[in-house]
Amino acid sequence: MPRPRFLGKLSKAETFEALEAKIPKAGYKEDDEEEGVDNRSFAAFKRMMEDAVEATRNKSRSAKEKKKTNRILAKQGWVSQMKRVQCYLGVRPRQALTIPMNPDIDPDVDFQHFEEAKRKYDAA
C-alpha cells in the first residue's frame, strides 16, 4: 500500500492534473520499503505487547499490596490511639509496662531493679 506523499501546492487545473499523474500506483514501493509484515515481526510485536500488559499487571499487584500494608498500619495506629484514649478516660484498665520478670521466678533479674521498675510503673 503506498504511503501518502506531499506532492506540493497548486493554483491551476493543469498543475493539478500534472501532480495527479505523479501519484504512484497501488503496487509501487520505495527501494527501502519491505514487502509487508512477516510472521516473525508480528510474533515479536505480539510478544512485546503481552510483556507490556504483564508489566502493568505486576505494577498494579505491587501497588495493591502496598496500599493494603499502609491500610493495616493505619488501622493499627488508630487502635493504639483508641486504647490510649480509653485508658486516659478510665474506660480501659492500664496495660502492664515492660516490667522485668519477678526475681523469685527469674534468677537473672536483680530484686532492686525489679522494685525500681515496679515503682516507676505505679507512679505512671
Word description of this protein:
- By secondary structure, the protein is mostly helical.
- It is built from three helices and no strands.
The average pLDDT score comes to: 76
- Which runs of at least 5 residues are low in confidence (pLDDT < 50)? none
Counting DSSP H or I runs of 4 or more residues, the number of helices is 3
Query: Which series of helices and strands comes N to C?
Result: HHH
- Residue share in helix: 55-70%
| Radius of gyration (Å) | 40 Å
Largest sheet: none
How far is the first residue's CA from the last residue's CA? 86 Å
Label the structural class: mainly alpha
Overall spatial form: rod-shaped
**Total beta strand runs:** 0
In oligomeric terms, what are we looking at?
single chain
What percentage of the residues does DSSP assign to strands (E)?
under 5%
In brief, what are we looking at here?
By secondary structure, the protein is mainly α. The protein is 59% helix and 0% strand.
Please describe the structure with a list of short key phrases separated by commas or semicolons.
single chain; 124 residues; mainly alpha; 59% helix; 0% strand
